[in-house]
Amino acid sequence: MMTNLDELKGPRYANVKDRNDIIAGIAAGRKIQFVTYALPDIMEHQLDFVIAAILKKFQKSHLQSTVYTCVKELVINATRANARQAWFHEKQIDVSNPDISSQHTEQIKAEISEDWIQKYGSLARDAGYMVSIDFEYDTDGMRIWIWNEVNLNSLDEKRIRERFKEGMAYEDIVSFYMEKGDQSQGEGMGLVMNLLLLKGEGIEPALLRIGRREGRTMARLEVPFVEQFISVRGPNPHGYDHEAVGMRLDYRDNNA
To answer: What residues are paired with 213 via a beta bridge?
Structure first.
């Protein structure tokens, strides 16, 4: 069952750009794509609104907080990966060697700040390192794809697998905090928290995936609306074919 989206035109979302166009696009079932270089307030509002509209259309608004939190974390990671790539380029560091890039990643961790993010986010924008966020949905569920221009190296891929394994070891956020305490804010803990949030909503954590594809890094979150939802990972062994983009919203000029 679907619902009317007109109430999204109220004051809560008054500052959302292209609001009426987005509502019309979602009502028509069109795929939505955002293109950005960073995650300023305007992009947070846009993401929040699109997620709210899609979930409301299919009467799944109770998933709003979890889905938005997960997507925001994935987009932050994507924009920071691009900024890190810009830092490597400025320092003329060979990122094809995982050992070398790993050593310098530790240096980035020591340097990172709001000023660092602003500087290298701008350099990433100048270099054309963009992030795209695609929303595909139907009555069975929603798929959200986050792409950045950096090819995930083997060490980062290993860390991600370790975080997935760690997240799967806990039943809920309470048990995680009870054991981890102050460590819960460490590197990669956002991914663990996302997995636990999904568990809390009854969403299979394996529906959140991060990996390499076509020389870029891809993160994908699938959100079932019905029990018979079929993931892109099966049963079709060839995977899922993207729909044609129905609405492309480019916010790169708002990231200055």
So the answer is: 216
Q: Output the average pLDDT for the chain.
A: 83
Residue 198 lies in a domain: no
Rounded average pLDDT over 126-148: 95
Q: What is the pLDDT of residue 71?
A: 97
How many CB atoms within 10 Å of residue 20?
Answer: 10
Helix (H) or strand (E) holding 117: helix 114-126
From the list 35, 25, 21, the residue with the least C-alpha distance to 57 is: 25
In a domain, 202, yes or no: no
**Angle ∠(165,168,171) on CA atoms, nearest 5:** 155
* Within-domain flag for 246: yes
Task: Output 19-23 pairs: Cβ under 8 A, ≥24 positions apart.
Answer: 19/49, 21/247, 22/49, 22/50, 22/53, 22/247, 22/249, 23/53
